[in-house]
Write a sequence for this structure.
């Protein structure tokens, strides 16, 4: 079990102007980073620690702060960033502690829709993101494209394909996949929004007031549908979530195919991170897309 070093605890206390914490409780469940609930006399915080010598939390901080600009706080909560520290190749991110409850997901769906709508109404000119990021532990490429198709292929799909095991897909199949994706998206009108980017049920919750909570983002400016597509990848979202979201953004023709196309990015990423059965899933997704 990893522990926070005395130097790290001291740095945190100095940053916050606090005495030594009343308690430090390790939280289990994360695959990539270590985390703790840290309690001071007048506040409780969530602390994440990364010792992989990568700036995961600098990116996460950037995403949280950008997403927060576009939410309606009556329906959606994004944890406040309290502090970010870089101590001897270790990153520490401190965010507010939010107590989760088991309410329905109406406000989560409505709040996500409002966030997508508000960010779209800020009149974004291009698709992409200005800083290098991560999706899990995989690099998520920075850059901008005028075209949604070019963004999705050049900044997301092609970088994942380039690191996929060479014996999984041959060049001809990869070229066919790219052509099929272009053909399916060419007549689609994307709604350019700042998306969460990694919206599975493990990165969402409901607070004590029934508001939706989203965290652990991998944001970029993208078609709003990429977030909704990912909610369907592993499940965990109720009918009320989709009902409230689609009151703001009604379903568009062809969405069932775009779910597969957009989630292909995440399946590729899981295959690159974990291998195993995800490599077979890549082939299954390829067959589906080619047979559209």
């Amino acid at each position: 079990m990893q522990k926070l070093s005395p130097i790290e605890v001291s740095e945190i206390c100095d940053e916050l102007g606090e005495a030594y914490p009343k308690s430090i409780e390790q939280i289990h469940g994360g695959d990539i980073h270590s985390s703790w609930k840290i309690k001071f006399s007048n506040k409780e915080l969530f602390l994440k620690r990364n010792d992989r010598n990568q700036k995961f939390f600098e990116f996460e901080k950037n995403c949280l702060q950008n997403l927060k600009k576009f939410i309606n706080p009556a329906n959606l909560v994004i944890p406040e960033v309290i502090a970010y520290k870089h101590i001897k190749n270790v990153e520490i991110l401190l965010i507010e502690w939010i107590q989760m409850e088991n309410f329905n997901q109406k406000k989560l769906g409505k709040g996500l829709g409002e966030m997508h709508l508000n960010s779209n109404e800020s009149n974004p000119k291009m698709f992409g993101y200005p800083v290098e990021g991560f999706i899990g532990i995989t690099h998520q490429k920075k850059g901008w494209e005028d075209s949604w198709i070019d963004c999705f292929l050049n900044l997301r799909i092609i970088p994942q394909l380039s690191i996929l095991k060479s014996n999984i897909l041959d060049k001809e199949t990869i070229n066919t996949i790219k052509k099929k994706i272009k053909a399916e998206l060419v007549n689609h009108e994307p709604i350019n929004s700042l998306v969460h980017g990694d919206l599975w049920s493990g990165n969402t919750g409901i607070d004590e007031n029934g508001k939706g909570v989203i965290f652990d983002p991998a944001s970029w400016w993208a078609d709003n549908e990429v977030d909704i597509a990912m909610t369907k990848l592993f499940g965990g979202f109720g009918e009320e979530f989709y009902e409230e979201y689609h009151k703001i953004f009604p379903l568009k023709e062809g969405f069932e195919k775009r779910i597969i196309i957009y989630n292909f990015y995440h399946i590729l990423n899981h295959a690159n991170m974990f291998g195993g059965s995800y490599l077979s899933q890549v082939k299954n997704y390829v067959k589906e897309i080619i047979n559209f």
Notes: The chain has a mean pLDDT of 95.
